[in-house]
């Protein structure tokens, strides 16, 4: 297989990357917003949240139209009630296996290659099994790439 050089723009001209030069650019931009926890309890890392009418976040759940629109995942270890914290809306979210266990209800962290969905029975939880019950929502939220990392890819809810 022949070695190929990437094309770059130099002084308005498209050229091959000159010998000795390298591409130095961020390949994974992550969007993080800071919002207030509107729940009466702390919200832990990895918990899926939605934005409520007051502009705060609360635990998302796939059982009602008002709680199903996942904004992102808590990025901080924990966000105390009424405190502000970071919510990651895309990219790769890393947490320990123990932290993921709290969110999934499993042990050993995430399962690499597994697609995760918003849980319809418990607010702020994820499940590896898509809901199948009428009046619940299927909301794919991401795919595990290891036991500690999830690639966030939130899809629109589908009402069953």
Task: Outline the structure in words.
The chain is mostly beta strands. The chain has one domain (32-159). The chain is elongated, with a radius of gyration of 19 Å. The mean pLDDT is 92. The longest helix is centred in the middle third of the chain and has 8 residues, at 97-104. It has 1 helix and 16 strands. Strand 11 and strand 12 (126-127) form a beta hairpin. The strands form 5 sheets. It has a 5-stranded antiparallel β-sheet, with no helix packed on it. The chain is 5% helix and 34% strand.
Integer tally of domains: 1
Radius of gyration: 19 Å
- Helical residues, percent: under 10%
Q: Order of strands in the sheet with the most strands?
A: 3-9-7-5-6
Distance between the termini: 49 Å
Overall 3D shape: elongated
- How confident overall, as mean pLDDT? 92
Instruction: Sketch the major β-sheet.
Output: 5 strands, antiparallel
Topology (elements, then pairings):
Elements: E1 7-10, E2 13-16, E3 32-36, E4 43-44, E5 48-51, E6 57-59, E7 72-74, E8 78-79, E9 84-88, E10 91-94, H1 97-104, E11 115-118, E12 126-127, E13 137-138, E14 140-144, E15 149-152, E16 158-159
Antiparallel strand pairs: 1-2, 3-9, 4-8, 5-6, 5-7, 7-9, 10-15, 11-12, 11-14, 13-16, 14-15
């Amino acid at each position: 297989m022949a070695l190929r050089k990437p094309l770059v723009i130099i002084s308005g001209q498209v050229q091959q990357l000159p010998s000795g030069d390298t591409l130095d650019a961020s390949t994974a931009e992550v969007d993080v917003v800071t919002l207030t926890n509107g729940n009466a309890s702390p919200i832990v890392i990895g918990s899926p949240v939605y934005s409520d009418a007051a502009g705060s976040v609360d635990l998302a759940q796939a059982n009602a139209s008002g709680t199903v629109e996942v904004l992102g995942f808590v990025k901080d270890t924990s966000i105390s009630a009424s405190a502000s914290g970071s919510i990651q809306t895309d990219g790769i979210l890393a947490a320990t296996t123990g932290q993921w266990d709290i969110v999934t209800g499993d042990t050993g962290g995430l399962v690499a290659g597994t697609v995760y969905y918003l849980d319809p029975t418990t607010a702020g939880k994820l499940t590896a099994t898509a809901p199948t019950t009428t009046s619940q929502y299927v909301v794919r939220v991401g795919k595990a790439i290891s036991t500690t990392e999830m690639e966030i890819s939130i899809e629109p809810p589908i009402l069953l």
